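Quick one:
INPUT:
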């Protein structure tokens, strides 16, 4: 939830900045109630607009609906930094190029997309991919990461999956 009037900030600008990096649902809850304010909230990327005073049950339902509509598991495609990940065909798209991924490559990239901007440790990725970090050594993860990087480079995505040495991977 975001207000339009904030100390030292403008809610519309904050919304635009958030939407540049994440598809987080944003509901404007504000005492401003002009049509221009509502239009600007939509144009800045807001998902809904509620004026104060509000009915708490209506607000809760709007929050539930915004979260449901923005649930990544319902998407056909996730987009991060102009890169599309087709969830139905396991394909990565960048500009006019695309490449098909193996099951493990897809799962790695999917997990990174769901955690964009966060560094995921090798242990966390291994646990997510194979559900048993003790059964597999990190070499299998490294092989899959390297294959994924090669495919991404083939479509012009050099250094898309980044490494924080000694910590993990991120996009």
């Amino acid at each position: 939830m975001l207000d339009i009037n904030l100390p030292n900030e403008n809610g519309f600008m904050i919304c635009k900045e958030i939407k540049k990096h994440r598809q987080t649902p944003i509901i404007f809850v504000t005492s401003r109630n002009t049509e221009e304010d509502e239009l600007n909230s939509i144009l800045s990327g807001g998902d809904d607009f509620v004026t104060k005073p509000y009915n708490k049950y209506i607000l809760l339902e709007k929050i539930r609906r915004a979260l449901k509509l923005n649930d990544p598991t319902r998407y056909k495609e996730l987009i991060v930094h102009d890169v599309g990940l087709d969830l139905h065909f396991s394909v990565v798209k960048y500009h006019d190029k695309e490449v098909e991924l193996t099951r493990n490559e897809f799962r790695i990239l999917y997990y990174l997309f769901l955690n964009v901007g966060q560094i995921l440790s090798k242990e966390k990725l291994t646990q997510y991919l194979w559900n048993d970090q003790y059964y597999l050594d990190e070499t299998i993860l490294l092989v899959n990461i390297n294959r994924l990087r090669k495919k991404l480079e083939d479509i012009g995505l050099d250094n898309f999956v980044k490494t924080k040495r000694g910590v993990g991977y991120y996009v």
